Amino acid sequence: MLTQEIVSFITVLVVAVCVACSISVLYASGLRLWARADGDVGRELRLMTRLASAVCFAACVAIVLFALWLMIPMFH
What we know:
Layout: H1 2-37, H2 43-71
Helix pairs in contact: 1-2
């Protein structure tokens, strides 16, 4: 019984750390790509970096919304 609680705790801890790291990496990548698009680059590269940064930000929003959906029982 106690070992099951410890395993559950470790599982939640690992998942929470992985999700937090994923959101941090995606947000930082989105900011970096957005800043690179403001530099002296060609038009095609500017469009691609802005699109990639928008995808990173959209992934952050999707992860947060999915986490909220999991936590709020009214949505199930």
